[in-house]
Amino acid sequence: MAWVRTILDVYWDLRPCAETQALYKSKGMRATDYxxxxxxxxxxxxxxxxxxxxxxxxxxxxxxKYKENPIRLDEEDKSRLAIGWYKDLGLHHVxx
Length: 96
Hints:
Number of strands: 2
Strand content: under 5%
Radius of gyration: 14 Å
Number of domains: 1
Mean pLDDT: 94
Largest sheet: 2 strands, antiparallel
Shape: globular
Number of helices: 7
Strand order of the largest sheet: 1-2
Distance between the termini: 17 Å
Structural class: mainly alpha
Helix content: 55-70%
């Protein structure tokens, strides 16, 4: 789903992997903490239906499916987003 790529691109721009992992490490946390808490942050986020969000590419599916503001994903779409996130991290075996 193209919307997953769009959301992940925004996420990575706002929370770069190397910098975010370095922050976790500086606090004595592990990679598994990063995976857990960042995935919870990403899938638990609520997105404001505003001009900036609506102008993102490939979000038509989200705008059509979710009418509320803020937008909160259901479990099915959270799962899709999680799979994309794990794949971006190179953790393909986690979602296979």
